[in-house]
Amino acid sequence: MLKQLHKQFPFHVFVWLGILFLLIFSYIPMFGIIIAFKNYKISTGIEGIFTSSWAGLTHFKALIDDYNFPNLVRNTLILSILKVVFSYPVPILFAIILSEVKNVAFKRFVQTVSYLPHFISWVVVTGIAYAFFSTGYGIFNELLLSLGILKEPVDVLTDPDSFYGLAVASAIWKEAGWWTIIFLAALAGIDPSLYEAAEMDGAGRIKRILYITLPELKSASIVVLILSVGSMLGGGLVGSNFEQSMLLGNSLNSEKSQIIQTYAFNIGLAQGRFSFAAAIDLMQSVISLFLIYTSNAIAKRVSGTGLF
């Protein structure tokens, strides 16, 4: 056993470093959740987390009674649902299209270009959005004006009605290529003899996709869907609700860009109401946990496949 342990030592190091990372940054901070039920003040420091007076559900009631609450819930839900609906099919379709490309060099080039945006920060993506959609110097408006399609510039960046579309489109552009990798890996695991047999039986490309590719992608698709629904309030598959609302949001489109996460951040830091902000985050986490279990149960009942 010691010989085997010595042989696997490098792998154990990676595993234990991962576990240590989770303990330090994910599990230990969970103790801070209790301030959602207390009257915590930052001046009391870490000790105050345990010594502050209990407040029960006061902060949760304050959130529900807040006049911003209906607007925050509406914006968060609409943005999250739109992202799940529009971002979920894109990596699957893109992976299928890439798998049909026979030119290996072109396929690798497209794949590399598609997942590079994943490594760009949302600050840079926001800068690109301003470069494209600014009414003063944006390429989008200048091009459409020069072609005569528009008579005057469209103010995409400050128009509240444009915020959802801008957020969903930019999130898909940034993350769809990255998630395509998962489905390409699933496609690589399909037995080639299935395609050869189908081709010999006269099945065309569309039929091979419908009757072989899509059924073989079912397990990976369901797992990704469950994860996407479970993290829906954070943006689902493409995430980033918070970053987008903070960076693309402004005083002119705040009617649509203000969501629960940005409200918790602003309240927690700007006004020092850490217990209130913790209550908001805790409520969101409970809802996300409920969504994961519910989507997993529905997926198991409908398809027989689930995450756990």
Features:
single chain, 308 residues, mainly alpha, 17 helices, globular
Quick structural overview:
With about 300 residues, the protein is mostly helical. It has helices at about 1-5, 10-25, 45-50, 60-65, 70-85, 90-100, 105-115, 120-135, 140-145, 160-190, 190-200, 205-215, 220-230, 240-250, 255, 260-270, 275-305.
What does this structure look like?
By secondary structure, this protein is mainly α. Helices cover 71% and strands 0% of the residues. The chain has helices at residues 2-7, 9-27, 45-51, 58-65, 69-87, 89-100, 104-115, 122-133, 139-146, 160-188, 192-200, 205-216, 218-230, 241-248, 254-257, 260-270, 274-303. It is globular and about 75 Å long. The mean pLDDT is 89.
Helix/strand structural class: mainly alpha
Major β-sheet profile: none
Order of helices and strands: HHHHHHHHHHHHHHHHH
Q: Please tally the helical runs, counting DSSP H or I stretches of 4 or more residues.
A: 17
Number-wise, the strands total 0
What percentage of the residues does DSSP assign to strands (E)? under 5%
Shape: globular
Low-pLDDT residue intervals, each spanning 5 or more residues: none
CA-based gyration radius:
24 Å
